[in-house]
Amino acid sequence: MNVLVFASRKGGSGKSTLAAHLGSYMAEHSRPTLLIDADPQGSLALWHQVRGAQDLPLHVGTKHLAATLAKARRAGAEWVLIDTPPNAEAPVAEAIWHADLVVIPMRPGLFDVDAVQATIQMCRDLKKPYAVVINAAPAKSGSDDPIVADARSAMQALDVPTWAGQITHNPELSLSLAHGAGVNELNSRSSGSEEIGNLWRALTRSFEAIEAMMDKHAQSA
Ligand SMILES: Nc1ncnc2c1ncn2[C@@H]1O[C@H](COP(=O)(O)OP(=O)(O)O)[C@@H](O)[C@H]1O
Ligand SMILES: [Mg+2]
Q1: Is the CB of residue 46 below 6 angstroms from any atom belonging to ligand 1?
Q2: Are strands 79-83 and 58-60 parallel, antiparallel or unpaired?
Q3: Interval 3-59: pLDDT, tens
Q4: Average pLDDT over residues 68-88
Q5: Please, which residues have CB less than 5 A from ligand 2, an ion?
Q6: Mapped to the 3 state alphabet, what secondary structure does 71-129 carry?
Q7: All domains of the chain, ordered by start, with CATH?
Q8: φ, ψ for residue 62 (rounded to 5)?
Q9: CB 119 within 8 A of CB 150
Q10: Distance from the CA of 174 to the center of ligand 2, in angstroms?
């Protein structure tokens, strides 16, 4: 079971957006997935309510996280997606503690690059694998937009693993959420859908690499 936590101290970076679109992608591909909305703002729970479907179970709140995860594992969940509030407080630390991988969505920009550092530090302190995902980026025209290139160099200078792809700023991502869907369900051949698919494949590869590393550690212990 892959526990993916979306975290960033910065509000509006795209935590709930990515959690919902990936959730919808999992549902479309019949991957048993549990959504956990650990943000009192309740964005993911709202999307789930609008969706009104049974394909993605949802747990709301931060209490009993360990028990919720154990139950999901017993029920055969392959993925757990945990959305968290934009702060660096105890519930976020607890979610990160349970994570196999932390996704830190980051808009490209000075303030955003600065703001993610608290979250990166939490992941480092808790020794959790993490990756920054550049979100709401200007569309690529061949190479990265200069603002994205800047954000990537800042991450590289800080030795922060950053997904090589990007999620482009795209109104279809908001529009589909308003209908309780993911961009893949709105238009499976859109560029937004392709980007979410690319992100999913990159995350899958990361989990495989993390598992292989864990197995190696277990064998040498
Ligand atoms: N790639 C994107 N393209 C267009 N709009 C986006 C994108 N990512 C996020 N948004 C919009 O930005 C706002 C904040 O995103 P949200 O996921 O709620 O951030 P967070 O959960 O980190 O606070 C929402 O209105 C969302 O629809
Ligand atoms: Mg949110």
Answers
A1: no
A2: unpaired
A3: 999 999 999 999 999 999 999 999 999 999 999 999 999 999 999 999 999 999 999
A4: 97
A5: 15-16, 43
A6: HHHHCCCCEEEEECCCCCCHHHHHHHHHCCEEEEEECCCHHHHHHHHHHHHHHHHCCCC
A7: 2-220 (3.40.50.300)
A8: -105, -5
A9: no
A10: 13
Task: Give the gyration radius of the chain's Cα atoms.
Answer: 16
Our answer on whether the CB atom of 42 is closer than 6 Å to any ligand 1 atom is no
Question: Distance between CA atoms of 81 and 6, rounded to whole angstroms?
Answer: 8
Which one of 6, 9, 10, 17 would you pick to mutate in the ligand 1 pocket, going by the greatest count of ligand atoms within 8 A of its CB?
Answer: 17
How far apart (Å, rounded) are the C-alpha atoms in residues 119 and 18? 17
Residue 63 confidence (pLDDT) above 90: no
Measured from the CB, is residue 173 less than 6 Å from ligand 1? yes
Measured distance CA(182)–CA(22) in Å, rounded:
8
Q: In this model, does residue 91 exceed pLDDT 90?
A: yes
What would the mean pLDDT of 68-85 be, rounded to a whole number?
A: 97
Residue 73 has pLDDT above 90, yes or no: yes
- Give the residue carrying structure tokens 């979610």: 95
User: Does the beta carbon of 85 sit less than 6 angstroms from any atom of ligand 1?
Assistant: no
In whole angstroms, give the CA distance from residue 198 to residue 163: 10
C-alpha span between 134 and 92 (Å, rounded): 20
